Amino acid sequence: MSMIQAHALNLSFGSGPALNQVLHDVSLSVADGQSFGLVGESGSGKTTVLRCLAGQYRHWTGALSIAGAPLQHKLAKAHFRHVQMVFQDPYGSLHPRHTIDTALREPLIIHGISNKDDRINQILLKVGLNDGFRYRYPHQLSGGQRQRVAIARALILEPRVLLLDEPTSALDVSVQAEILNLLADLRQREKLTYLMVTHDLGVVTHLCDRVAVMQQGRIVEQLDSQALSQDLAVHDYTRMLVQASRDFSQHAERLAG
Ligand SMILES: Nc1ncnc2c1ncn2[C@@H]1O[C@H](COP(=O)(O)OP(=O)(O)O)[C@@H](O)[C@H]1O
Ligand SMILES: [Mg+2]
CATH number, domain at 163? Predict the structure, then answer.
């Protein structure tokens, strides 16, 4: 079953001479439980695809569906229970003057869900924190802990789909792997489906089953991550990304060596 589907998704901003078409006929399909990577140069439209699926834009054309249910331009509240987004910068997505408890409680209040205290404690444990974090503020947490809270907030409504926008690129290299491992574990344990933007092909090969490569608002190539690591990409732009990533690894090895 296809959990996330986009068919001929188009989106423009502005009008008249200032019209900027940002997405051109983007089509992709992510199976239930799959992890799908979206890579491509800055400004190619990756975040915009996630925002359309998250219901943040309404003026797209084409067809989007989650778990077989078509997205309407005006979304039902239920949509936000099934689809949640995690951003690059957890500082920006957490209110600085709200405790972690308040941040986690808010979605439960909006959706009228009971047993709030139990759910808050449980979700903190699931992301590797404990209830001692409930009454802290974001600035009292490390970057990795803040991203764990942002993931907890995304998961507290028990969604089926997580849209992840470069979830580790604002973090120190030393904590990136820890958060990526957490995401991999959570996907298995909670039977989640991921659509994840990343600029790191290493992340794609470790965490994603399949990947689409975007350039200037279009998907120029889609392939299994295994094919990517076996150097089977055919599009020039994808090959350039693979080469750049390889050069970088060799450079890093030389530095370490
Ligand atoms: N709200 C917006 N209003 C106008 N233009 C936007 C808006 N959001 C994104 N864009 C434009 O859409 C293009 C794609 O942006 P984005 O999806 O953020 O790219 P990426 O995530 O791949 O770096 C960029 O040219 C950006 O300037
Ligand atoms: Mg982006």
Answer: 3.40.50.300
DSSP for 155-174, written as a single string: HTT--SEEEEESTTTTS-HH
233 Cβ contact list (under 8 Å, min separation 6) = 213, 221, 223, 227, 239, 242
CA dihedral 170, 46, 190, 102 (to 10 degrees): 50
- The position carrying tokens 């008249």 is 16
Distance CA 84, CA 159 (A): 7
Domain span at 30: 2-256
Q: Is 237 helix (H, G, I), strand (E, B) or coil?
A: helix
Q: How far apart are the first and last CA of the chain?
A: 46
pLDDT digits (tens, 9 = 90+) for 1-54: 899 999 999 999 999 999 999 999 999 999 999 999 999 989 999 999 999 999
The predicted pLDDT at position 257 comes to: 67
Is the CB of residue 48 below 6 angstroms from any atom belonging to ligand 1? yes
Taking the centre of ligand 1 as the mean of its atom positions, its distance from the CA of residue 44, in whole angstroms, is 8
Please state the domain count of the chain. Answer: 1
46 lines ligand 1 (CB under 6 A): yes
Prediction pTM value: 0.94
